[in-house]
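ESCALATION

Customer reports they have been waiting on this structure for their group meeting. Please prioritize. Original submission:
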Amino acid sequence: MSTPHQPTRHAGRIEILDGLRALAILLVIGFHYFSRWTLPRHTQNFYPWGSSFAEVPVFSLGYLGVELFFIVSGFVISMTLFGSSGPLDFARRRFARLMPTMLLCSLITFAFLSISDTHMFTVRPRDFIASLSFVDPDFLHLAFGGQFGVIDAAYWSLFVEVKFYAWACLLFFISRPQRFIRNFSVFYGVVLLLDVGTRVLHAASLARVIELLLFPEYLGWFAAGVGFYFLFKREHTPWAIGLVLLSLGVRVATLAHTSTSSTAEWVLSLAFYALFAAFVFRPHWMKLFCWRPMVTVGGASYSLYLLHQRIGVSLIADIAHAGGLWGRPLSLLIGAAVTIGCVGLSLVIYRYWELPSKRWLLRVSRRAAPPAPVHAARAD
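Update from on-call: job pushed to the front of the queue and completed.
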């Protein structure tokens, strides 16, 4: 039985984190199915219901679900680092977690888009290069020239994630693990100073380099997750509080200086911090996020994130055209059915591919890796 300071675990996972993942992926799906691919965000309309819901805040701001994913990632990667015996052990854990599912979902997406009747999204075999390497296409362009794409544009956040993994790993193993929170806090502060400096000096080229390498636009969300992890562990509390407050302050300042920021955007952004604070200090308030359907969807959120956008939007359009439902209210049922179908497929992939392939890769690679310290819960 959990206590107010001990969130419920199921099969080694922290259930509330999976519930938060479910919220994040549902927000992103709402954005991609109702707002992203129609006016005013896109020059064409890809939805049978048009732009009727494009400006509804829960849909138009659904992209912020990615930021919630980043906070979860900051928390989870901190946990994973403390459970890793070294950089190679950390890398093999991340590889086993990410690569098999990315490979399968990329192949599924490529195959589906190649036969879709609407041909709204174009994919090429060379798009697998960035997708399977988790390398930002802009890096590939700088290194090799030419244009590099991705199998699904939603993969952009994975490129940011991998950059965070690299920096977090370096900052963790460069000195004693106990200094990680200090190292990361200093790192985040330096990145902020560099970002502000390039803006003040109008150094566009340097700003681009900083954006590619240090991703200041998103680093604050990861920083919040790192800080919340140490608050969760009740360790190095002053550093952790400072890191969370610095991240929050930067977010508030960004919203205050963005003329297009809406009240709903303020509420949703601040709600993410409030939810994590409740998770850390009052987990018994988070019962909704321990609800079994939420936990289940959250567990399969990685494959669902990889699959849902281009497949889902294309499928909605294909079915609406084939059934003569384009522009009719009943087309909303198609959106619901496609969402359920994508969730169902992701659950199958999670159970019969993601988990088995991860276990197999870890088992095979463990023979050549030093033993990792025992950890209370799996990070991912």
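Sent to customer with the following note: The beta strands are 9-10, 13-14.
Escalation resolved.
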